[in-house]
Design goal:
Layout: E1 2-8, H1 28-44, E2 50-54, H2 57-69, E3 75-79, H3 87-95, E4 103-108, H4 112-119, E5 132-137, E6 151-156, H5 165-169
Parallel strand pairs: 1-4, 2-3, 2-4
Antiparallel strand pairs: 1-5, 5-6
Helix pairs in contact: 1-2, 3-4
């Protein structure tokens, strides 16, 4: 089984309009959301073994902080090809992964992250900044994954409301 974590980078700063898009850093809100999301993901217990991140500053900062705080202590690699708007390009990167890791996180940008999540079966209009989706694939190698095989296991984002106790208990 393979687990794919999709993470949209945390909220970026627009304070310096002279910066090119690739060089935009995280905002204070983005920096505050990361520990909260890592804490929630750590409670889930199956963290990524490898994080592949876009080379853009806001994505690599997000990925670096996740890598430092996740209990799974994943390895981190920046990939220029993840700085894309194409879900198909993200899928190509995933399929090209070796089987060194069974649990991989991709850190990237919208619309590619949301479009890929929707292709894989997530029923959501958008993945918010610092949002995480986890998919399971019953395959032995990354090259064999297909959108029709994915099972959504987890979806969380910073502003997601916590369920109330009565909602958890049912009727």
């Amino acid at each position: 089984m393979k687990l794919l974590f999709l993470l949209r980078h945390a909220k970026s700063s627009w304070d310096d309009p002279s910066l090119e898009d690739h060089a935009r850093p995280l905002s204070n809100r983005g920096l505050k959301n990361i520990p909260k999301m890592v804490h929630r993901l750590n409670a889930w217990q199956w963290g990524p073994q490898l994080i592949l991140t876009s080379s853009a500053l806001r994505a690599s900062e997000t990925a670096g902080l996740f890598a430092q705080m996740l209990y799974s202590r994943p390895k981190l690699e920046a990939r220029e090809e993840l700085y894309t708007e194409s879900a198909f390009e993200l899928m190509d990167v995933i399929r090209s992964c070796t089987n060194v890791a069974d649990r991989i996180m991709l850190v990237g940008h919208n619309p590619a992250i949301t479009n890929l999540a929707q292709m894989l079966g997530l029923k959501a209009d958008s993945i918010p900044t610092c949002g995480v989706v986890v998919f399971a694939f019953e395959v032995d190698c990354w090259s064999a994954i297909d959108s029709g095989q994915a099972t959504v296991l987890y979806f969380d984002y910073p502003k997601r409301a916590r369920p109330q106790p009565e909602e958890l208990m049912g009727d």
